[in-house]
Each structure stands twice: as structure tokens, then as C-alpha cells.
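ingest -> validate -> predict -> emit
validate: passed (alphabet ok, no gaps, 119 aa)
predict: started
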Amino acid sequence: MLDDSKPLFVAVAEQIEDGILDGSYPEDAAVPSTNELAAFLRINPATAGKGLGLLVDAGVLIKRRGIGMFVAPGARAALRERRKLAFEDQFIAPLLREAAALGISPAELANMITKEVAR
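emit:
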């Protein structure tokens, strides 16, 4: 389902990105059309189109005139790299700042993470 905490067209774009990352839409595969997305998600076609437009602008999708939208070559790798950088900014950097403020060494932090993964 779509994330209500962000603009609808951004959530639409992220849903397509998720499909690319999980392999539902491999490179060079067609993605749902604006009208298909709008009908499935029960949203305005203009909103669905704006979400797809974001992905075209980002180079994730390519338009093939008269045929539809397709996953661009290298899109999966590019999305994975972009999301890794966002993960670092949103989660790792704040974690390290808080650990430093609490006097937790990198080794202690790594140990905490290892223990949590084992749970």
C-alpha cells in the first residue's frame, strides 16, 4: 500500500522503485501504465503520471513512444546505490552521532549490532 506520510505521487514512484529493487520489474520490462496504476491504486491518473514522471526524470524509467514505460538499463543498481546513501544519511550518521555522545566506541557499537542480528 502507499505511504500516507508523503505526497501521493512520491509514494507511487517509491512503489515502482520497490518493484524494481525486488525484481518484480526487471530491466527493460514494462511497468504499469498511468491508467493501470490509477485504477489499481484508486488515484487520479494525473497523480500516477506525476509519480512515473519522477522516475523518468531520474533515469529509472524510459518512455518508448506509443509503447509505454520501461525500466531503464542499470536502474536497479542505481536505485540500490541511491537508497544505500539515503540509508547512511537517515540512519547510520545519526546512530554514530548518538553513540559518540553516549561514549559508545565503534567496536562496542559493532558488537551491539552483531548481537541484535543474532536475535
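The helical segments are 8-21, 34-41, 45-57, 75-101, 106-118.
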